[in-house]
Amino acid sequence: MPIRLIAIDLDGTLLNSSNEISGENTQALTAAHQAGAEVVVVTGRRFHSARPFVEQIPFPVTVISSNGARIGSTAGEVHYRNFLPAEMARRVLELAIKFRPYAVAIFDRPGAGQVMMQVGASHQGPLAWYLRNNPDCLGLVPDLHAAIAEDPVHVTFGGPPSTLEPLEAALRQSPCAAEVHLTWTKYLTRNVSLLDVMNRGCSKGSALAFWSAHQSIPSHDVMAIGDNHNDLEMLEFAGCGVMMANCSADLNDGRWLRTFSNDQHGVAEAIRRYVFQ
What angle do CA 64, 38, 196 make, to 5 degrees? Predict the structure, then answer.
């Protein structure tokens, strides 16, 4: 079996549209694990949000979370951090003051304050999602810029694509441009996009490269499966890059191998097709 490491995105890839890992996907992952392949979940979610899903996989799995900013295990070990320096986070928030209602600072700590937003944040941004799904981790502060006293994992801006697109251009033309990495996650059918401001050089691809080297596995023995823009760097790193059928339409450009959608057990199909055949 030439594939020794399988790197899998979570939302839109391993999870179906009901936020479940299907039995077919679990069986295929278990078969690959038993055949000697390492399984790594590589997600844009923060670690504490991804953990309940990863713990459903019936064997040890490494988690690359927050688009590559952290590598750890569900047992609590942390192998790698590449967080956004606090000073840089504050500079980004100064430059993006008009977009402050859509801004989120993510911190690597449990409980309240793991996710920080400013009082008056827009319900068109991530606020509504956190109030509905993770209210216990949300902290609202009078001034998000002033509240950043330690390195956040990253800073995210979420909202309608048409609202956030000017922010990318502004940040790329700013004095911060050389010190940060920008990555998009786009859900165009829901009219929602996330622009993550990461530390320089931080991405799913760079974290996967670090972990592969740590495990002495060359890139040509790695398969990566994803569906969105934030997966591109890891697909480019892997010797076998697989795109889900439900990917963003602008990513359906023929560069990658293909598999079924997340509602058709696409991860299981990719493992059958590209690992065992």
Answer: 15
Query: Helices 161-172 and 86-95 sit at what angle, rounded to 10 degrees?
Result: 120
pTM: 0.96
Per-residue model confidence as pLDDT tens digits over 47-104: 999 999 999 999 999 999 999 999 999 888 999 999 999 999 999 999 999 999 999 9
Q: How far apart are CA 169 and CA 102, in angstroms?
A: 16
Query: Can you list the domains of the chain with their CATH numbers?
Result: 5-81+202-275 (3.40.50.1000), 86-199 (3.30.1240.10)
3-class DSSP state for residue 233? helix
Number of H helices, E strands in the chain: 9, 14
Residue 39 φ then ψ, to 5°? -110, 130
